[in-house]
Amino acid sequence: MAAVKAYVEAGGVLLVDMAGGTGQFDQSVSNLLQGAFPAGFPNPLDPSHPVLSARGLGMDDLGHPRLRPFAIERLGHSGIFPYY
What we know:
By secondary structure, the protein is mainly alpha-helical. The protein is built from four helices and no strands. The protein is flat and about 30 Å long.
């Protein structure tokens, strides 16, 4: 928890992808993040955020990410990722 908190507070980006699954992994990550950031998380990323908008060398524009068909089938979402 301390390492994750220090990394993010120093400007690091933490990207967690459970690849369409649910269960122990997502609960474990949720507990980790709640412990590291008790004041609250996640904060939605603005679509213009550099991580999504390809404002960096060698980056692809992810301004309109979509869920994979498998994830839509499992999670029942429309396919639009909520930027967390």
